Amino acid sequence: MAEKKKPGRIRLGVSACLLGQPVRYDGKDKLIPAFKKRWSRFVTWVPVCPETECGLTVPREKIGLFGPGPAFRLKGLKTGKDVTGQMVHWTEKKLDELVRANLSGFILKSGSPSCGLTSALDYSSGVLVSGLFTSFLQRRFPDLPLVEEKNLAYSEVRENFLDRIFVYKRWQEFLEKDGSIGGLVSFHARHKLIIMAHSVRLLSLLGNLVASARNKAAVLAQYQKYLTAAMKKPATGKTHTNVLQHLAGYFKKVLPQEERERLAQQIKAYSQGALSREEILSSLRHYARRYRQRYLLQQFYLFPEPEEWPLRFISPGL
């Protein structure tokens, strides 16, 4: 039976070794302390180890992928024992469980022949590919945000992953609890600035789609397709600068000249890497409240959900 979803906590799948479970082929783990000590305060983890859960022992012979793809085989590196069928049989059942797990994203162990996202070695060709479990996961959940743990060391990757998982979570909740055209209009309005930071072009397409919404089922499916495509495009310092300048425009007629100039200087400093985005957002939140900018007060870009705040300021310690 699937665990009940705790209100206010995002649910993430994770390779079990990253939480300290000694499930690797050598009986060791790949614990990331911040995941267990700090992120765990705000995340409900759904740990998965494809190799042990499909019945392989600990310790065990190291296994690897052998192509050609996409029909990879999973074999022991010393004996050549083929465990592909065992892994595939378990994976198909596990994915049915994950449908009920309400995941908003998945953090995968890099380099793993089962869990790697883009870093599993195909021993036949020397090319880096997706692990066997991950390739099935991607096909079953094509919109689910995925990331390898090593890439979370980069702040830009981490920020983009957090954007994706929380937008995905809210979208799934919207579909489950509402799913109306009116609800879609509200969802889109509150996410405009986040989407703008990822893709101005797709924001425009999404806006046109919402404005001309008629057939609900078709519109929701197309909106999800465009939204996923937008969120997969990484937000950068340049795109965030564009959003910050857009936000500053809301106050150009109400702010005293000195404050307008200071805000412009802050945005320029951010674009040059001399100031954090959070420092500017703090000023913009203050202005949004002071001048009662209702539209801005509803923007998730400015006012993330309470459970999202801490994750943006806690390094995973990689």
Mind summarizing the main beta sheet? 4 strands, parallel
- Principal-axis shape: elongated
What is the domain total for the residues?
2
The rounded Rg comes to: 22 Å
Strand content: 5-15%
Describe the structure.
It contains 13 helices and 8 strands. 49% of the residues lie in helices and 10% in strands. The protein has a 4-stranded parallel beta sheet. The protein has a two-stranded antiparallel sheet with strand order 3-4. Strands 6-7 form a two-stranded antiparallel sheet. The two termini are 33 Å apart. The protein has helices spanning 33-37, 50-53, 84-99, 132-140, 155-177, 181-198, 200-211, 216-232, 237-248, 257-271, 277-290, 294-297, 308-313; strands at residues 10-15, 43-48, 63-66, 73-76, 105-108, 120-121, 128-129, 146-148. It folds into 2 domains: 10-153, no CATH class; 163-318, no CATH class. The radius of gyration is 22 Å and the shape is elongated. The protein has 318 residues and is of the alpha/beta class. Residues 1-7 have low confidence and may be disordered.
